[in-house]
Amino acid sequence: MKTRLLLSVLLISVLTFSCTDEPDDKPQAPDTLVRSAGVYVLNEGLYGANNSSITRFSFDDSLSVADIFMQQNGRGLGDTGSDLAIYGGKLYAVVNKSSQLEVMNAATGVSVRQIPLFDGDVPRQPRKIAFYGNRAFVCNFDGTVAVVDTASLNVEKYITVGSNPDGITVAGGKIWVSNSGGLNFPDYNNTLSVIDPVSLTEEKQVTAGVNPYVLAPDSYGDLYLIARGNYGDIKSRLMIMDAGTGNVKHTFSEFEAINFTLAGDTAYVYNYDWMSGSSSILMLDVKTETVIRNSFVTDGTVVQTVYGIAADPVSGLVYVSDALNFAGTGKVYAFTSEGKLKFSFSAGMNPAVFAFLNKKVIQD
Amino acid sequence: MAIFLLNLLLQAQEPVKDTLSIGGVEVTGQRPPESQRSASPMQVLGEHELNDLPGSGISDALRTFSGVTIKDYGGIGGLKTVVVRSLGANHTGVFIDGVPVSDVATGQTDLSRFVLDDLQAVELFVGQDPALCQPARAYASSSIVRFMYRSQDTGVNKSGFRAGFRTGSFGLVNPSAKATFRIGESTLAGLSLAYNHAKGDYPFVLKNGSLPDTTLQRENGDITALNMSFRTETRFNDSAALILNTWLYAADRGLPGAVIFYNHHSSQRLNNLDFSGSLSYRNKKGRKELLSVLSYTNAFLRYRDPDFLNQNGGLDNHFSQQEVYLSQAVSLPFGSFFNAGFAADLVLNSLNTDQYTAEHPFRATGMASASLKATARRSEAQATLLFTHLHDRNGSATSASRTELSPSASFITLILSRPLIRLRLLFKNSFRMPGFNDLYYNLVGNPDLRPEFVNQFNGGIIYTGSKQDFSFELHADAFRNIVKDKILAVPSQNLFLWSMQNLGKADIRGVEIQGNAAYSHRSGLNTRLALNYTHQKALDVSLEGGPTYKHQIPYIPFQTFSGTASVRFSEFGFGISSLYNSHRYVLGENIPANLLHSWWTHDLVVNWERPLGQHVFSLRLDVSNLLNTQYEIVKGFPMSGRAFYLTLNFKL
Predict the structure, then answer these.
(1) CB nearest B495 (choices: A44, A98, A184)
(2) What was the ipTM of the complex prediction?
(3) Which domains does chain B have, with CATH numbers?
């Protein structure tokens, strides 16, 4: 009963949201619609424990497969997954300690290619991935960005950037990389590298906050990013930069933030205060650059250890992962944009990143 | 030095005793009857038992004891720490020849550094040694492991020389030599040297999902170590003895790290350079006894990770720590029923590294203990109160003080004399201070940590019997340990950033059963059988309703079993040992993903000892992990499969 109810609720929301899509965003044939087929969750696992995994939740049957990678490929994903994304029908998983880029068929999870990212025999430790044209850009902790041809799946080139890049995105026609310097305690880096996606070279470095991390563009020419600070007197903050000039526009100093996601005009920003063990998620309007709501969750659902966040562009649902005690099964909650819990499911250890599988459906 | 002078003045004129037996090293191969009379559960392996026990390191001896779990990262160079009755390694005090070994950074002692040669006895006390004249520090841990090295190889008046050579699997080369000589009338000196090199490149099987098993070789598991010790024993005109013990340990080893899927690169190195010197003086006259200890330790550790992706092109961390230790203990009779023991200790620790938030952290610990023992014909009761005052200075910035009182009490009584059955009870309260790493390590350390407290309860019976050439012993104990403010490493913002917190509570209940049987025939045939079984439920009771609530705490097997058997006849000795650890969980949540499988291993040894005139020649073959079992004690750290070791010894 519950499943059926859930499905009908989902379908309604799917229809609602697909109708509100901006008409000129991506021209679609009028008789097709895009439907959320499922969501992939990358579970980091524990460092040194070879237990990173990918959980898949399918809307067809509302069933989740705890480790679709293991199920489809008969082997483990590896040690410490750090990013997951779908591009051009393929699912890309960045596996940090195993130092691999795992490329799968997005519909099935079957591995197409395992791309080792090593410098001689020294692991480069890939962290995050972004796409532009027919190329994937993977930033590696060894201070490089690997350029991967998405058709041949060969590494074309390594571009040298700053130290320990820990975030990558496309904004204003450029590739932006956050040079965290995270392994240089206490002297963290504070720059972003700007890469030209045509010449495949680092164009310039611009100054951001201390220890830059996740970054993402809005649709108004801005680049949002987290600067993690020094874990001491410099707190972890959300900042806005001008994606044209590369200048810092604003730092939200009224709240601490360790991660965020952008969906349309809304940024969902979270913080986890490990001293008190409490999580908080707030909503921000990126058009006005003001806080919409200090507490995103409105129905009293308690997320113990918020560990990842993403919004499904099709259904509009906001997915929040909970690492609980970091040492066992994690949880994923799907909220409506009103902050009401829609459904939840169990994931693997330390669920952190989401990728949404959408399906084009022919309407009758 | 004032303490020593005082001792010399206190010496009474007693007739010279015709023995070299000196407190602390008086175990001479016979199972001391103490283990049958001790209110604290005690296990001993004496010289012969050690000789008949298969193994190539001292942890091989310790792991056969009941209640003991060795956390072993595999290989000869792999770190090995000892956990007793589910209490973390920080709760086990390790004493070498009566002098404590400590590490103020981690609070744990790595056993892989101690050599097996000349080991005379290994003892484990749960709670404490019931002896009255011992340092206050001997009461400060929840359990005590003692290693005692042989003071001499030859008779009382002779000088001697021993040379040995051990070699075997995975590139092991281990020559050792020891010279014993007299200095003047009353001093016996021993100088020993051991070099140890192993490649540690053992094969292991990698399992990954349903992929075919692949056999790989452990890389970067090599070790080169040098152990050097110089020891003197001086006897005075009474039974008093002064022992000087100096020890130098230098090692360079690879840290192979956890086995990682698709990435087998390993390049981390660890270097140690430790020096330790101690002087102890013991004087025993009837029921009066006096012990003074002075020791100094300097431990240097260097950790390198050339592939750490920082801007300096790798990590190169240095830790240098010093300890000065002073102890004065005395025991006295009070009437015919009572004996009392008093001890006062001072421990000074300092550490220097660039990896701490604190510059030059310093710790001064003052301890005082008072024990009272009442002895009747059939019973013995003992109560001890340990007072600890501790002062931490964290660079020039802050300082913290702490005072604790730790009581303990034990009782043993003969409840039946035919058959001989004793009942014993023990209560002990103890705590462990957070180590300097817990407090100050960059990003991880938490200077607000409190100590971790343990209450131990034990009740058991001891049955001993003998019939003609046959002797039999059975110990059965039930225990409960309650841990509060357990120090745990908890991820803070992400998995790259952990923090130490006083979050845990544990409730540990268990049963230990030990059975020993020995048969000695007039013809010289000696056989021995020892079976140890432990069942433990070590539950995390930190947070009711949490995902780990009432789950077994990580790395504690539910059941452990060890069985050892030996036969000795004429020039030959044969020994076998079997070990079993049930399944364990590597993390707090007891789910299949965190499961580590159970394992059985079997080791054996064959000894041949042949006198050649006044000299003795011996040959020994060890086979460890006879059935080539593939297993892990720590997740991601495979243990070695079957290995062979050959040892030659020659005594002049």
Answers:
(1) A44
(2) 0.87
(3) 34-651 (2.40.170.20)
